[in-house]
Every structure is written in structure tokens, then in C-alpha cells.
Amino acid sequence: MTYCVGVKVNEGLLFASDSRTNAGVDSVATYHKLFVFPQPGERLIVVMTAGNLAVTQEVITRLQQGLQTDDPFSNLLLARTMFDATMMVGGLLRRVIDRDRAYVQSFGADVSSSFIVGGQIAGDEPRLFLVYPAGNFIESEPATPYFQLGETKYGKPILERILNPQTTLAQVAKCALLSFDGTIKANLSVDLPIDVLIYKANSLSVGRHQEISNGDRYFADVCSAWSDGLLHVFDSIPNPPWAADDA
Amino acid sequence: MTYCVGVKVNEGLLFASDSRTNAGVDSVATYHKLFVFPQPGERLIVVMTAGNLAVTQEVITRLQQGLQTDDPFSNLLLARTMFDATMMVGGLLRRVIDRDRAYVQSFGADVSSSFIVGGQIAGDEPRLFLVYPAGNFIESEPATPYFQLGETKYGKPILERILNPQTTLAQVAKCALLSFDGTIKANLSVDLPIDVLIYKANSLSVGRHQEISNGDRYFADVCSAWSDGLLHVFDSIPNPPWAADDA
């Protein structure tokens, strides 16, 4: 499994992904799922991946190979818009699954893969997209300022409670880590390290690219402060009157 | 969809279920999913249901019809143990799906159904079981004091954080309602009213059977106190040092 979150707020974008890949519980490995395509001062594009690792690796490899061409439909750094860049990711995904699906399914496996694509190209706003397994995609809007990939349900409630376009990037980073904490606690196939990339609107360069590994002091502190705080809030709320000890 | 929670703590048992049934978003109805088989002073058995409504209704109807017989393998009130009672539920489930599966699947629908069965029979401890769609089942133990049915993921983290065998039934009730709150907010197909039944160990009778409907004052208060409390805890935790505004 995988867990990735992409967030778009007024201040910019945040991308976070775990690094665990598994094919059964006895085949677990660490693979990064967050890929950066930078052209400092002109654009920054980030792609996060989930799903069949052979499929997503080929899509990323073809994106990297495309950087050698001068074709704006093959080279992410020449794509005219973030929409065109996302179309490129969806198109590569379709090529791979058109070719591989029958072979993979004959072994009972699944080619399904999905992507979060975000970034900014000079002259346009920061944008954030979710590419479905079918290769089509949707764009974030202020009422829905985030997308998730993979094991989405455990970590969704905190995103829903906290995020809105006014949330600062520093708050978004804290919120994303708590969303990962809940997911990691609930699903063994999601785990550290977490790759976090912060992009400040109009900076056209990487703001911060942080890896949160086992033993990370801030991550441990934020998770334990959250856990203690929730227990305190829970205790502070009265029990149901109809469940009193003499009920 | 459905959401049900069954909890076993030292003080007794708690059962809670939503009441929404849907076959597509344009076919939504209210059906109760919590069924009580009482024999005051001798036993109390509770069955909660999730899955294909035709299947679960038939299982419940056959359990109710079985109450007219004097067969301990057909009459829940004569079952010798909670294990036998749960075996009865699993056996009825298998009979129904053996007969219906091919017909239902020919319309692309799913016969899958699952149950939580719990209660106490005089001379034994309170016990709590989860019946899988295959009709086999598992029993709760202190390290895992709860079972869920249906839309389980959104509401699981709070159960994990709060519940242990020492949790009081009043706290369990508060925790269950918060688990429902998170699930209802995330999944349109889970909704009020919530049926809550509290069973005190060794009472051999219903402690409290409460319906939480729209407009329930305590439910509204507990959800808003929880929401406010979480936002306060979130704000009180420092942002990541590497995400400071000058990062």
C-alpha cells in the first residue's frame, strides 16, 4: 500500500508520501514515491505515485527520459501548462497499461496506478491534479484543497477538519504528518520514511524537501502531543447522561 | 453502507449501529440493524447486521421464527452457549447464501453479509463475536476489545486510542458516538439514527437501549466539543521547525 497527500493552499503547495512498497507482507521494500522536476526560476513540477510499482516506475522513467527531448508533449520542463504536464502523465500511464494489462492480469495482479501532479509554471498559478487509474484527471479547487493516494480513509478526517485555503504551509505540514501518523498506526503497509516537499507560491523552486525517518524527533513529539491532547479532550467531554453508572 | 460497533469491556458490552440502508445514492432507506433476543434473568443476546439487506433480514427472520421451536440449535433462547448462538447465525447465513448467491450475482449484486453477535448466558461470561461473510467467526479478546462492521476505517482510530478492558461503559458510549460522528461526516451512506444498547455484565437484561436521532442534544454537543477540542490541540502543537515561514 501507499499513502500520499498533496495540498494546495493560498501560500503554496505541499506534497508528502510514505516510502513503503509491498507485494504481500513478506515482500516489503522502501521506494520513494515523490519525484521532483525542477527548473529553478521557471517552474517546479512534482509527481507522486501509487499503485503497481512496475507501472509507476515506467511512467516516471519515461518522464525522466522525456527531459532529453525538445517536444513539449514529452518533456515536462517544456510543457506549456500544468494541465499539459498532467495530460503527459495520464497519457504515459495509458500507454503502459494498454501494453501490460493482459499480462499482469493473467497472474491475478492489478495494473491500477494513480498519481498526484502539482507545481507551478511561470505565468500561471500553482495547480494540483489527481490522475485516476484510467489516465483522466481532476484539479483541486478551494473547497477541496487536497488529494490523497492509496490508503486514504484513516488519514482523511484530520485533513477535513484542518485544511482550507487560508491554512499556512507550516500548519499544512503539521496536519499532513498527523494524517500520516494515523495511517501508519492503522495500516502496516504504510511506513516511514515520509518525503515532504514544501513549495511556496511564485518561488518557482523547492522551498524545503525533508525526509522524516525513524527517530525523527519532531515527528515523535507531534504524534505524542496529538495523542495526549486527544485523550485529554475525550476525558473533558461529559459522558452520555443516559449511560450514567446508575442507568 | 452501514456502520456498527460492538465493544466488550470488563463492565459489560456495548452495541451501536446506524440505520441507513442504500442501494445506490437514489435508493436510501432507514432500517434497524440491531436486534435484541432477551430472556430477562437468564440471557441477553444481541445481533447486529451489515451487508445485503435481503440476506440479513432473512437470517434475522429465521432467528425470530426459531424462537417458536424447542431445538437448541434453532432457538437462540435455548442455545447452550454464546458460541452455539453465534454458530446458529453463521449457519443460517450459509443456508441463505448457498441458495441465493447465483441468482444475486447474475444481477451483478453481492450477497456478502456479516454480523456482530454478543451477549451473556447465565453461568458464562459476556462474550462478543464477529461473523464473517463465509459464516465462520472470531471472538473478541482483551487486546482487541471491539469489532466493527461496514464502513470501518474512518471511525477506527478513536476506538484504537480509547478502548481497553478498563474503559467504563459510559466512556465506551461516548467513544462509540464519536466514532460514528467521524464516519457519518465521511460517508454519506452512514447516518442517524444510531441505535445504542448498553449491557452490564451479569445483569442478564438490557441496561439501556437508546436511539440517537437528528436533533439529539447530547450527540450534537459531544461532536462539537470534540471538534473544538481537536482544533485547540492542533493549534497548541508547534509547527515543524523545518517548515518555519523563513524556510
Q: Tags for this entry?
A:
five-stranded antiparallel β-sheet, 12 strands, 247 residues, homodimer, globular, Ntn_hydrolases_N (chains A, B), alpha+beta, 34% helix, Proteasome_sua/b (chains A, B), Glutamine Phosphoribosylpyrophosphate, subunit 1, domain 1
Can you offer a commentary on this structure?
The structure is a homodimer of 247-residue chains. Chain A has 247 residues and is α+β, with helices and mostly antiparallel strands. The first copy, chain A, has a single domain, classed as 4-Layer Sandwich (Glutamine Phosphoribosylpyrophosphate, subunit 1, domain 1). Helix content of chain A is 34%, strand content 28%. Chain A is built from five helices and twelve strands. Chain A has helices spanning 53-66, 82-105, 156-162, 169-186, 217-236, and strands spanning 3-9, 12-17, 20-22, 28-30, 34-39, 43-51, 113-121, 127-131, 137-139, 146-150, 194-200, 208-212. In chain A, strands 10-1-2-11-12 form a five-stranded antiparallel β-sheet, covered by helices on one side. In chain A, helix 1 (53-66) packs across helix 2 and helix 3 packs antiparallel against helix 4. The longest helix of chain A has 24 residues, at 82-105. The N and C termini of chain A lie far apart (45 Å). The mean pLDDT of chain A is 93. Chains A and B meet through helix 3, helix 4 and helix 5 of A and helix 3, helix 4 and helix 5 of B.
